[in-house]
UniProtKB/TrEMBL annotation:
Spans traversing the lipid bilayer: 30-53, 65-86, 143-164
Lineage, top ranks: Eukaryota, Metazoa, Ecdysozoa, Arthropoda, Hexapoda
Superkingdom of origin: Eukaryota
Keywords associated with the record: Membrane, Transmembrane, Transmembrane helix
Protein name: (apollo) hypothetical protein
Keyword Transmembrane: yes
Length: 197
C-alpha cells in the first residue's frame, strides 16, 4: 500500500501539472529533491516487499537483507524530513517566492468579497467563492493525514525490522522443529510481508 502510494505520488509530481507546477515554481530545490526521493523510496519499499516474500526460500539471508533495507529506509526518511523542514523554514524567511506565496494568500482573502460583488457572473462567482472557502477550511486536514500516515508507516517499519531480526535469529538457530516450526515460520513470514507493505 505504501509503495503504491509513493509511486503514485512520484508519478503526479512528474506528470500532473496541477501538482508540480506550483510546487516547482515556488520551491524548485525542494520539488526536485522530493520528486527524486519519493520515486526512490517507492521503488525501495516495493523491492523490500518482494524480498520479504523471497525469504521463504533462503530465509536467514533474505531476512538480514530485509532488516538492513528497512533500517536504511527509516534513516533516509528521517534525513529527508529534517532537510525539508530546515530548507522550507529558510525558504519561508528568505526566498522571494515565499513573499509571492504570502501575497497569493492575501489575494484570496481580497478576492472573495470581489467575487460576491460581481452581479453579472454570479452563477460562476458563487461556486468559485465556495471552492475557495472549502480550500481554506479543509487544507489543514492534509497535515493531519500526513502526520497520521507518517507515524503509522514508521511503526510498521519498526515492527517489520524487529520481526525480521527475530525470524533471522530463529532461522539461524539450527535444524529441528518439524512441521510446527515450519508453520510458525510461514506465519511469521506472512506477518512480515504485511508489515513491509
Amino acid at each position: 500500500m505504501y509503495a503504491g502510494a509513493l509511486l503514485a505520488t512520484a508519478a503526479r509530481l512528474a506528470w500532473d501539472p496541477s501538482t508540480y507546477t506550483w510546487f516547482r515554481f515556488l520551491c524548485a530545490a525542494q520539488y526536485r529533491v522530493s520528486a527524486a526521493y519519493v520515486l526512490a523510496a517507492g521503488l525501495w519499499l516495493a523491492a523490500l516487499v518482494y524480498l520479504a516474500a523471497a525469504a521463504a526460500a533462503s530465509r536467514t539471508l533474505c531476512l538480514h537483507i530485509y532488516a538492513g533495507g528497512v533500517a536504511c529506509l527509516a534513516v533516509s526518511e528521517v534525513a529527508y524530513g529534517a532537510w525539508m523542514v530546515a530548507s522550507l523554514a529558510t525558504w519561508w524567511r528568505e526566498a522571494p517566492q515565499a513573499e509571492l506565496a504570502r501575497r497569493a494568500m492575501d489575494l484570496l482573502h481580497d478576492l472573495k468579497p470581489a467575487l460576491l460583488a460581481v452581479e453579472r457572473y454570479r452563477d460562476l462567482a458563487r461556486p468559485l467563492y465556495e471552492m475557495i472557502e472549502e480550500v481554506e477550511r479543509e487544507a489543514p486536514n492534509n497535515v493531519v493525514v500526513i502526520v497520521i500516515f507518517g507515524v503509522l508507516g514508521m511503526v510498521l517499519q519498526i515492527a517489520a525490522f524487529v520481526m525480521a531480526r527475530r525470524l533471522a535469529r530463529r532461522g539461524g538457530g539450527g535444524g529441528g522443529g518439524g512441521g510446527q516450526g515450519r508453520g510458525r515460520g510461514r506465519r511469521g513470514e506472512a506477518a512480515l510481508v504485511c508489515a513491509g507493505r
